[in-house]
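Backbone-to-sequence.
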């Protein structure tokens, strides 16, 4: 793998989407191999969660969501950092449980 490929986001998102699809397929195949209803539900739920994650990678590639477009970061107030640390400070201390 070349250094250019290593730094190419498209390469990494494609690779992750392929691996996620393989896991999705495996989970759905295993649903037919087990008898326990709770395990079947866990496999199918896990597959659906991974479908959503795979879509997030695709949306990142296509820049379909506002969060993945660079112009969003230009309009954020200076106090809002990309890692959310200023959001944590604004939230204040958590209420103590009783």
């Amino acid at each position: 793998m070349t250094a250019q490929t290593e730094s190419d986001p498209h390469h990494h998102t494609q690779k992750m989407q392929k691996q996620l699809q393989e896991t999705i397929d495996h989970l759905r195949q295993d649903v037919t191999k087990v008898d326990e209803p709770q395990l079947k539900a866990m496999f199918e739920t896990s597959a659906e969660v991974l479908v959503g994650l795979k879509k997030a990678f695709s949306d990142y590639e296509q820049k379909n969501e506002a969060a993945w477009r660079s112009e969003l970061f230009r309009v954020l107030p200076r106090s809002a950092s990309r890692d959310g640390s200023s959001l944590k400070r604004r939230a204040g201390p958590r209420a103590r449980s009783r």
